[in-house]
Amino acid sequence: MSGRGCGGNLIIKTVSGFLIPFIQLFALYLAAHGDLGPGGGFQGGTIFAASLILYAIVFGLDEGREKVYEKAAGVMAAAGVLVFGGIGLLCMAAGGSFLQYSALLPGDVKTAYHLGIYGVEIGVGLAVAGALLLLFMKTAGSRDD
Amino acid sequence: MALKFTLLFLLVVCAAAAVRMKDLLGAVIMLCAYSLIMTLIWTLLNAVDVALTEAAVGAGIVTVLLIAALGRTGSREEDPPPSSLIPSAKQPADRHPSSLAVVRCALPLLAVLLTGALLVYGTLDMPDYSAPASPANLHVASRYITDSAPVTGIVNFVTAILTGYRGFDTFGETVVIFAAAVGALLILGKGGKK
Fold first, then answer.
1. Which fold has domain B1-77?
2. Of A89, A142, B28, B160, which is the most exposed, with the fewest CB atoms less than 10 Å away?
3. What is the pLDDT of residues B143-169, one digit of tens each?
4. pLDDT tens for residues B31-79?
5. In a domain? residue A145
């Protein structure tokens, strides 16, 4: 896959180049609005990873970029789990039990829930996007064998 | 009702096509169509969160990952070796099927039909779909529906359940996904360092 992309098909390149920002915007919208409508970090992260994979398939990645992608994906996956777990531990530090958001802001339970769930969704999204990207890079990346 | 049955029928057709196809790329596309139909079914069942997940994961990422994996293998299924249990149409023995071949064909069919009949018989005792009095809806489900929005302020109670009431489970799932990525990294090798 690396370096060549889709053999320079103009239609695919133009349409993908136009669509990818909108796909990413939709992914961020889903991740941020999980508490108001359908969606959430999992779906948002998956679609975000799909947009990056679409870019990689259509435009191709050179060696250096592939390395950067892989490194970033690994960091994202680990950071997501850390954010999720960190929020849980933060609740414990505030005097509640693990992931008991109401302990974060004792006066205002609803805001506490909102903030906690917002953070957790971001964590899930990061972890899922990073993990899926990593899986793709490992199955389709340049063959180092 | 007719729409649901049409979709379920198409679902079976797609699944069968995906299994029978020799062209693996076609089989992957069939799986993608299967997920798309599943998305419509989830939407008809008012499970939009699940529908969104099915569309993003089943029809999106899984298809891409399978196509990426096809780049590493061949894109055609190899014929099974002649000693295989499944009688192939190309084998000349098919024209004069021995009694052994008939038994080999009939036994699995009988087993599948019997299991299917038992399963259908089992569903007869199940409560109607979304019946309010069914045991699954009598436990905590009603509390989630009525109490989650006033208590937590989260309008979409699916999210309230996933990240609030069942936050620990979701944390576990996230760790599982992370572990899967780490496992893939270990099996497929860390790129570059050879």
1. Four Helix Bundle (Hemerythrin (Met), subunit A) (1.20.120)
2. A89
3. 888 888 888 888 888 888 888 888 889
4. 999 999 999 999 998 888 999 999 999 888 998 888 888 877 777 777 6
5. no
**Which residues in chain B have Cβ-Cβ distances shorter than 8 Å to A81?**
174-175, 178
All residues at 6 or more sequence positions from B28 whose CB lies less than 8 Å from its CB, including other chains:
B18, B63, B66, B67, B70
Task: Name every residue in B having a CB less than 8 A away from some CB of A.
Answer: 48-49, 51-53, 56-57, 60-61, 64-65, 68-69, 71-72, 151-156, 158-160, 162-164, 167-168, 170-171, 174-175, 177-178, 180-181, 184-185, 188-189, 191-192, 194
Q: How far is CA B131 from CA A98, B123, B135, B158, in A?
A: 35, 14, 9, 19
Residue ranges making up the domain that contains A17: 10-140
Residue B4 pLDDT > 80, yes or no? yes
Q: By the 8 A CB rule, do B76 and A65 touch?
A: no
User: Which residue has 């899922």 as its token pair?
Assistant: A128
The whole-angstrom separation of Cα A48 and Cα A63 is 22
pTM given for the model: 0.81
